[in-house]
Amino acid sequence: MNQEEQNHLWTVAWYLSHDKPAEALKEVHKILKYTPPGKAKPKPVKRSRSKPPSPDADSMVAFYGRAGNEANLVRIPTPYRMVLSWDKRRVVTTLRCHQKIAKPLTGALTQIAAEFTQTQIEAMGLHLYAGIFNDRSVRGGRSKSKHAWGAAIDLNPEDNGNRTPWREDRISQPGYASMPVRIIEIFEEWGFKSGARAWGRDAMHFQYTT
Q1: What is the domain partition of the chain in residue ranges?
Q2: Which of 40, 48, 44 is nearest to 8 (CA)?
């Protein structure tokens, strides 16, 4: 990500800090020159990102580079108020992610900020940030986690844990995860895979892969 693109992301943050979520979302689409999948335009427009890679290790390395390489990470502003899920006294103002997901991640989170109030966001637990970059293997395995590339984000782990089942007809019922369908749809529109839909669990998890 070059300096001009970084400045564009901070423009989005400025709009949001001045309570202008609709303008912020327009900025994501217009200045970042990105259109979510399925959002047709009258004329073809070259997108500013590549198609998400397959989740296998070879495809991840080809697209993102070596896992754990922090030189590929950038910081983007949070489009709404977030706190650390494990320490709610600590406010999160920037997110550290792989440069190739900076634009779609900004787009997805900004769309959430445009569609929902902060009160609604907190009621859904989407302000509880559980991390992006973590150079580790998948839990219980040897292959690298998508977090090792900074290509996945976790939100509201308290209600959407790795082993907590998710079913669309049982959202927030006892024993089931709470991640709303609309939030999953927003991330999918911006190219992310949802753990909820992919595995029926780990609903906190959104990764930028096919």
Answers
A1: 3-37+55-134+148-207
A2: 48
